[in-house]
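Project standup — Tuesday

K.O.: blocked on the structure for the chain from last sprint. Re-posting the sequence here as requested.
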Amino acid sequence: MTQTVGKVYAEALFRLSQEEQCEETVYEELNQAADMFAENPAFTALLSVPNIGAEERVDVLRKVIGNEAGITENFLCLLVEKHRINRIAQIRDAFNALYYEAFSIAEVLVTSAQPLTQTQREKLTERLSAKLAKKIRLVESVDASLLGGMVVQYGDTRMDNSLRTRVKDMSDNLKKI
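H.V.: unblocked you, prediction finished:
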């Protein structure tokens, strides 16, 4: 079975974080780093230039992220040295999947017509947690074209209870008559 580069690096990082019992810290730091690189593609490109020596690229990275010798920092330096920093998003996704599995967390994408209230968020989290028997990590987005209701997606399951879909379904049913 072939594994992606991202998955191989993520598994190695996850195993190391387990050995050091710092999975949560590495999870948070890796996600912050991946977000930083996503927001600054020019920085990623700079750290990927083959004409610049590995030591110089690592020095540039350390000046930006700090000179701490933690697991995440050392891992990012390794990625720069091995010309893999451009895979950081792929590595983060694979690491997060391992983290969620190990700590029984389900990432649930919720799209609603308007931002959820704290009460809605709590009720939804409570219901999903009971249904899935996992801790829930909500990822929220707003799409005004839904008109009302929400779309909830986790894993391969999608529950579309939006007003837009209900109106479309009614329209389709009326066309059949």
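K.O.: great, moving the ticket to review. Strands lie at 105-112, 135-142, 150-154, 157-160. The chain has a mean pLDDT of 91.
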